Each structure stands twice: as structure tokens, then as C-alpha cells.
Amino acid sequence: MNKNLFDQLYDTTTFESFGHELIGEIKAHIQNTTSDKNPKTLSWNEPEKELAFWKDFLINGAKEDFFSEVLKRTTHTHHPKYVGHQVSAAAPITTLSAMVSALLNNGMAVYEMGMAPSAIEKVVTDSICQKIGYKADYGGLLTSGGTLANLTALLSARRAKIKRDIWNEGYSEQLGIMVCEQAHYCIDRAVKIMGLGEQGIIKVPSKDNFAMDTAQLLSSYEEATAKGIHIFAIVGSAPSTATGAYDDLNAIADFAKEKNLWFHVDGAHGGAAIYSNKYNYLLEGIVHSDSVVIDGHKMMLMPTITTALLFKNKGHAQHTFSQKADYLLNEDEEADWINSGKKTFECTKTMMCMHWYVLLKFYGEQVFNEFVTRQYDLAKDFEKTLLKDSNFELATSPMSNILCFRYTGNTLDDSKLNQLNTAIRQELLVEGEFYLVQTKLNGKQYLRTSLMNPFTTIDHLERLQEKIKVKGQHLSKNVRWV
Question: Rounded to whole angstroms, how far apart are CA atoms 210 and 449?
């Protein structure tokens, strides 16, 4: 007798068979990438060709080949020559926590739909608040990514600092948020989603090292207020995305206190340095913040998307999205922490807290200390090798694991150097051995490395440097200048 479709769908024997085979493939993938056995970090394909492949595979591909093809046709973050975007080489154990989360599918909007993860999330967020240095009334939540977390923090700031009940009544007053001109674009996005418009983001100029020039805080503030803009919050970057530069959080904290502003720290990338015995000084002043964002999927070895939003005062976490939904939420203040849907923009979310918890349980905070410290040290080592070679120019000395540099070679003008470095990066992308990205700073095109992999060594980076030099010398003679 044939099984019906649902019997097939939930057949545990088939699941076990596929599961064992996939675990074997994942094991081999981890071994072959971390050991540098695989020759490429990615196998580049043109977008239209990749789309055509997957259209055809849906009809003609063998289903047992699906996971193998995905593994082959994606960017390998576990490869030591992956020095591209700010996404970690996730710890293998988090593959298992992700699997359990996906299977149990506890949405966590209300406590009875996520009893264990609700409690686990509180343990995790409380531990991070304590590490920041918050006292007594702290609280937090986990949410899907730094963009959403930063938006939530700024909504909390508006609710706390603006007397009018904007959430329910709307507003017509021009409000504003101060931030360094080098801050991540998600702050601009949050400001515009909040309806503050272009005028609502007051960009403070940066110094030569691309960190906020706090000496210009007062003039920026006074210029904005003279235009009738009511500034209610200020954001410190820890660090900025493009260059990895940390803002002076102590100076920003002092200014925020003086002007009665909400002080938010976007530590999505580098907030994890609170765990580094060597580099936690970069976050001096974070304890004075009202809110902090830290991504687990950046410098804490977790899968995407896993983000913590921490508050000095837990009441701000509980009241940002206050509204009535009597059929779901218990209004008892004592129970507020248990109902995730009351604190987050999301109603349903994954059990991302399990990634944090399992790493803390199995390896302790020391794993974060060692990883952050190692990667920041590695950027300093790479800087030294680049400075020894007159063919390269650095944008600034690295403060984190992000390093921006460009090939200069023969002294071309900036326009031609921009084209040359773009061409070098494109050749590296197509070749696939290394994966790095690029950024433009003050009109100059730079190559950009984010050292996210614990298996990347200075030898890998010196090989990358040599390849760039060879390509630069070749392309400078053959590229068609526009």
C-alpha cells in the first residue's frame, strides 16, 4: 500500500537517511574549507546563468543532489581566503541549534509558543547586559539583524524622549538623530522609515581616521536646532562598517548627557569586543549608553541572522511597541519579559537564542575573547606587511578586523586608480580563490578586507597581497581608461 503524501513528507526513515548523508557532506565541507584544501572560496557565475541553472534544476535535477549543488554554488565563509563581508564562519555546533529551531518552529510571540527559548533568551540578553556593565534594571531582546535592531532602538529613543504619544497620535514636529557621516546606512534607513526625512539625520563630520569628530558635535547640534529640528538621540558607531573605526563613546556619552539625548551604540559589528581582554578599551563609555546593538553573526561565530538589542532600562524594551492585543498578551507587568511579540517588531521569530546559549554553554565567553582578539591582531599584522610595500596605500590604520587599502603601483591619478582597483577586485571575484569586497572613501576606491575567519593567517593575506600586485601591474598596462 502506497503512503499518502503527508506520510512521505514526515517519514522519519527518509529524514534520517538524508540527514546522515547531509551531515557527512557538511563535515567534508568544513574540513575541506577550513584546511584550505578547496582551491576556491567561491565559484563565480553570472547572475543570469545561475538563475537559469536553478530554473532547470527544479525540473530536471536529481533531488538527492540539491544540497551538494548548494554547497558547491555558494560563497564559502569557512574558507581562510574568505575575507569579504562581515559574516562569520559559523561554529559547526550552531548548525545543530539551527536545525532544532527549524524543526520545533516555536514562533516565540507568546510564552506558550516558546517556553524554553523565551527563558533562554532572557538568560542570554541578561548576560550581555552584565558584560556591557549595565546595572539592576537592564533588559533586552533578540531580533532579526542589526538593521531591525537599530530601528527598534531609535523607536524606543523616540518614545522615551518625546513627550507626545507619537506611536498612537502621530506628529508634525521635525525630529532629528545625530550620527557620524561614516555610520552604517541602516541608520539613514531607520530615520526615513520613522518618517523623519532627510533633515532628520544630522551627520557629524568624521576625522581623518573616519571616526566621528566629536569636536564638531556642538556646532552640528546648534546648526540643526537653529533650523527647528528637535534632536532626541545620538548614535555612536562601534565601529563604522566601511573602515572599522570606533567612535569615542565617552565623548558622545558626555554630550548626550549634557543635551538630554538618548545615547545609542551601533555595535553590530564590533560590540563583541566587550569580551576581548585586549580590545575592550575600544568600547569605553558603552556603559553610559541607553541601548546597544550587537550582532551574533558577525564577531560571535553564529549563523545569520542573530542580533541582540540591549537596554540600560528594561522598561524601554517592554514599551516600544505597546498596543492592545488582548487575545495574545498578558498585561501583567511582571510577565512582560516572557512575551516576545510585545517587545519586537516581529511577531514570529526563530529560536536564535539557542546559538548564543549553546556557545556559552559549550565554550564559555573565552571563545569570544579569543576570536575577537585574534582577528583584530591579524588586521594589525596585515597592516604591517602592506606598509612595507610601496605599491599599496592604506585608508587608515585599522581599529578592528576591517582593513581598507588600495593598489597604487605606478603613480596614476585617482580616477585611474579607482578604475584599476575595481578591475583588480573583479578579476579576483571571477577567479574565486579569494573573496574580498570594495568601498569608496573620500572619492577613492579601496579594496576592503573583513577578517572573519579564524583560520585565515598572515600567510594567506600575504598571498592575497602578491596576487593583487601582479594583477595591478598587468592591468595598469592593459586596462582601457574611461
Answer: 16
